[in-house]
Structures are given as structure tokens and as C-alpha cells.
């Protein structure tokens, strides 16, 4: 039943000689032909056992071509290794690319390091050069890169330096005093200005220039005591006002200080009551300090000095002709200013002063000083007699000194007395 046995299949395949009564015993297996061969094997094998043939009959038919046959074990093994070989090859390529990238990075790092080293060397050389320029007081012409609210930034070789607004030349602002300095500095961008190095601190990376210092070096030698200038008032403080001086070329190159004591012959308690920023004034040079780069100016000395006048103008012989005095009195009617008598007694203690007498007295329309002050008349001495003016508030008093001292000696004597008397 079912599947015929091997013996039955062999019997049905016997040649006709068997059907003629010949016995099948002892017939060699070759009588039935060669045993089946594996399609993919090139070697001869014995006939497989029946159970193997049964198993083979249950399997799918073999592939008709060795080209489509499954790859032998060795081929499968090779197929498994090729991808690995491919991956190894790709890995090697990636490694090569990584190596190239590493080399490129290393080269870039080397180039960057060389660049940084060269840049640091240049910086060091620039700092050395700028220190030398400062020591030599060299005037440099440098381009303005940009401006900000505090000043302008200049280019010095590979570095940048700063010029604060107070160290800029007054020539820029004086072109239009009503214009804010921050707007003025914007116009300087792209131009070049002459400056000197005033601070070069490599440790703090601080480089400061001054245009005013360069202007001082160029123009200060032209300024002499007694010279008069037209000026524009700059900053005003409680101690005085800074005035920018106009030079013959029309530019305002230098700045001087009008001390509060040189603002007016009148009593000055607040400079801003007399001067404001942007005012135009006429000044005279009273001092030039080349070492400290300072110019002392005066406004009042260009006015008629009442403290060196004679009473012939303040209190003329004919009181009706006096524009400044309200009343006059004779020496007999004089009521001395408080403290004047004590000062006169001290004057008599000075060597060279032999006599002190009082002259005329009057009231002025303006207040020169609230405190008692003594002023020496500019009139030359006559018969060894000098004339002083004692003033307090609106009162003016003549005082005559008989002395062997000259004018300078009288000044010093008066100064010593005023220093002793409270």
C-alpha cells in the first residue's frame, strides 16, 4: 500500500530477459543502470539507501542549472566574508579620510599657531614702538576709525587707541559752539588728526592719545605774556572758565584758564553769573607755564582797573563830574572803614614806612569787595609818598604812605600786614 518498495521498483525495471524466467538473483546493480548522481557533484558515489531516496523524493526538485544552484558552503562562507571585507575596506577608507582630516586640522592648527605667534610678535613690537613715541614726545598723524560718546578711536599700526573728548583740539568744537561734541566727532571719522601718546600701558591694554598735547607742542611757543586773543568760552567751573584762543589762522588751537579772580573787577561769587559756554570774550595772557602746559588768562585786566586808579577819577575834585561817586567828604569828616585804623598802625611797624595819612572818601555805585582790601595806586610816588585805596563794599578811602620803599617794596609790606591782621 502506498509507495512501492525498492524491490518492486527494481522488478518492474528489469529487462525482458527476466520475464523469460531468468532469475533476478545475482544480477549486479549495474544491470539497472548507473545510480543517480548529484547535480552539483563531480564525483561518483554509491547508490543511496532507500530511506535517503525516500527523503529525496519528498524534497523539491533540484535546480536545473548549477548557475542557479545554491552556493556551496565555501561559497556561502565567502559571501559572508565579502561584506566584511567591504566593510573593512570602507573602514580603511574612512580611517584614511579621518587621518587626512586630522592632518588637515593639524596643519590648520599649525598655521593658526604660526599666525598667532606672528601677531603677538607684531603686537609686542607695536607696544615697544608706541612707548618709544611717548618717550620722545613724537607727534603722530593717525586715522580716525570711529567715534563714540566719549571720544574717537584711532588706528596705530595693528592696534587701536582712544582720544577722550577733553583731549581733542578745541578747533573742532569752536567751528560751531552750539553743536554737541558727540556730533562734531562723527565728522572726524575717516580723517586723520595729529596726536601725541599720553598713556601706553601694555599690561592693561590701554593706549590713550591727546590732540591737545600735539597742538601745545606746535603752537605754545607763539603765546607770550601780554598777548591778547579773541576767545570762546568753553567749560565753566566754580574756580574759573576755560577759554579757547583764536590764532591768526582762524583756528582755536589752545585753551587757557580765566581764574575767578580774573573774571571781573566786581565781586564774583559765581563765575556763571558772568560767563557762559559759547560766549565770545577778549582775554590777555598773564601767565604761560611751559612745563605744565598751562596758560593763565585775564578778562578784567583788559578793562580799566579801578584798583590801580587814582581817586582823581573815582572821586574827582569836582564831585559833580564823578560818574561813579555819590558823595565826597573832607579828611576832617572821614569815618574810617572798620579795621582800617588797625591796618594803618601795623603799616607803621614795617621798615621803611614812616607815616600814614588818610585822604578823601566816597561811595561807589558797584561793590568791589565785601571785605576790606587795600590797593596800590599806579601813580608814581611823589616825595616818597604812595597812595593806597582802601575799599569795602561801596566805600572807597584814600590812604597816603610816606616811605623809602619802592613800589614793589610797598606791595610786599601791605601783603605782610594783611597776613597778620585778622
UniProtKB/TrEMBL annotation:
One Pfam family in the UniProt entry = S1
Cross-referenced InterPro entries:
NA-bd_OB-fold, Ribosomal_protein_S1, S1_domain
Compositionally skewed regions (Basic and acidic residues) per UniProt = 1-16
The name of this protein is S1 motif domain-containing protein
What are the start and end residues of every segment in region (Disordered)? 1-69
Q: Name one GO molecular function term.
A: nucleic acid binding
Occurrences of domain S1 motif (ranges): 137-212, 226-300
Amino acid at each position: 500500500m502506498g509507495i512501492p518498495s525498492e524491490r518492486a521498483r527494481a522488478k518492474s525495471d528489469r529487462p525482458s530477459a527476466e520475464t523469460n524466467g531468468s532469475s533476478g538473483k545475482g544480477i549486479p546493480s549495474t544491470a539497472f543502470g548507473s545510480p543517480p548522481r548529484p547535480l552539483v557533484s563531480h564525483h561518483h558515489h554509491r547508490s543511496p539507501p532507500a530511506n535517503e531516496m525516500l527523503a529525496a523524493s519528498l524534497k523539491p526538485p533540484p535546480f536545473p542549472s548549477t548557475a542557479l544552484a545554491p552556493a556551496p558552503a565555501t561559497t556561502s562562507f565567502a559571501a559572508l566574508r565579502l561584506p566584511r571585507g567591504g566593510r573593512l575596506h570602507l573602514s580603511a577608507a574612512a580611517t584614511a579620510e579621518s587621518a587626512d582630516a586630522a592632518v588637515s586640522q593639524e596643519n590648520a592648527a599649525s598655521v593658526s599657531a604660526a599666525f598667532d605667534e606672528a601677531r603677538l610678535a607684531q603686537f609686542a613690537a607695536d607696544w615697544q614702538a608706541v612707548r618709544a613715541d611717548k618717550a620722545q614726545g613724537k607727534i603722530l598723524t593717525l586715522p580716525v576709525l570711529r567715534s563714540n560718546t566719549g571720544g574717537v578711536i584711532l588706528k596705530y599700526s595693528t592696534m587701536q587707541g582712544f582720544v577722550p573728548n577733553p583731549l581733542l583740539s578745541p578747533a573742532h568744537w569752536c567751528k560751531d559752539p552750539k553743536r554737541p561734541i558727540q556730533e562734531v566727532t562723527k565728522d572726524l571719522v575717516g580723517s586723520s588728526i595729529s596726536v601725541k601718546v599720553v598713556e601706553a600701558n601694555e599690561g592693561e591694554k590701554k593706549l590713550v592719545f591727546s590732540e591737545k598735547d600735539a597742538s601745545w607742542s606746535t603752537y605754545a611757543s607763539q603765546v607770550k605774556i601780554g598777548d591778547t586773543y579773541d576767545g570762546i568760552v568753553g567749560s565753566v567751573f566754580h574756580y574759573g572758565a576755560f577759554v579757547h584762543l583764536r590764532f591768526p589762522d582762524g583756528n582755536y588751537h589752545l585753551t587757557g584758564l580765566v581764574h575767578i579772580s580774573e573774571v571781573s573787577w566786581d565781586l564774583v561769587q559765581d563765575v556763571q553769573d558772568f560767563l557762559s559756554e559759547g560766549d565770545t570774550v577778549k582775554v590777555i595772557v598773564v601767565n604761560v607755564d611751559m612745563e605744565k602746559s598751562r596758560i593763565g588768562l585775564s578778562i578784567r585786566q583788559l578793562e580799566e582797573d579801578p584798583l590801580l586808579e587814582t581817586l582823581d577819577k573815582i572821586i574827582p575834585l569836582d564831585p559833580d563830574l564823578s560818574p561813579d561817586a555819590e558823595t565826597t567828604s573832607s579828611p576832617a569828616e572821614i569815618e574810617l572803614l572798620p579795621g582800617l585804623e588797625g591796618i594803618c598802625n601795623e603799616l607803621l611797624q614795617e621798615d621803611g614806612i614812616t607815616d600814614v595819612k588818610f585822604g578823601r572818601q566816597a561811595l561807589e555805585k558797584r561793590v568791589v569787595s565785601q571785605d576790606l582790601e587795600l590797593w596800590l595806586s599806579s601813580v608814581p610816588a611823589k616825595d616818597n609818598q604812595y597812595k593806597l585805596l582802601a575799599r569795602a563794599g561801596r566805600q572807597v578811602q584814600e590812604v597816603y604812605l610816606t616811605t623809602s620803599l619802592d613800589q614793589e617794596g610797598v606791595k610786599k609790606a601791605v601783603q605782610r600786614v594783611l597776613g597778620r591782621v585778622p
